[in-house]
Each structure stands twice: as C-alpha cells, then as structure tokens.
Design brief:
3-stranded parallel sheet
Length: 102
C-alpha cells in the first residue's frame, strides 16, 4: 500500500522545464492522503493545462480549506465535468469558494 506523499506528487507533477506536455484528461488520486501540501504541488500542473480535465478524483486526499481554495482557482479556469472531493475536511470557506467557481 503506497501513499501519495508530497515527494511522489512532486516527481509526477512538477515540471522542471515549465511545461507538462502530456494531455491527461482523467486523473484519480483516490485515498492519496497528500493534503493541501499535495494540492499546492498539483495546482501548477492543473492550471497550466491546455486540455481541461474531464474527471478528477481527490476522494480521501485529506485536502483542507486551503487546498479547496486552490482547487477553486483551477475550476475558475477549467470546469471539471466529474469532480470527486468526498471525504475531505474542505471547510465552509473552501466549499463556498469551490461552489462559486465559474
């Protein structure tokens, strides 16, 4: 059983050259337990995409209000058709920010 640590997320999703270059449309990080620190790592990857995500599963990622606000910034840029953020302590502010994303 491998957990998605911030170090693993960095290796997978942080670009050294400034471009991610792969057209990933579906991403499941279910039970990743990486928290908002992991969302800070994912944020640039999700924001710099040229193809919107069709499905993003962050079920059980331990993402709190800070992470939810970062995800809301992504949703402002690219609506995600299927988004699963169940079992996360998103907080009222985080949920509100996500729901108000255009």
């Amino acid at each position: 059983d491998v957990r998605l640590t911030p170090e693993i997320l960095t290796a997978l999703f942080r670009s050294e050259g400034g471009s991610y270059g792969f057209p990933l449309e579906i991403l499941s990080l279910m039970w990743g337990e990486f928290g908002s620190e992991g969302m800070r790592i994912l944020h640039p990857f999700l924001m710099e995409r040229t193809v919107p995500m069709k499905s993003l599963c962050l079920f059980g990622a331990h993402m709190d209000e800070e992470g939810a606000k970062l995800l809301a910034e992504v949703l402002e840029r690219f609506p995600i058709k299927n988004l699963d953020v169940r079992v996360n302590p998103l907080g009222v502010g985080g949920i509100s920010k996500m729901l108000s994303a255009k």
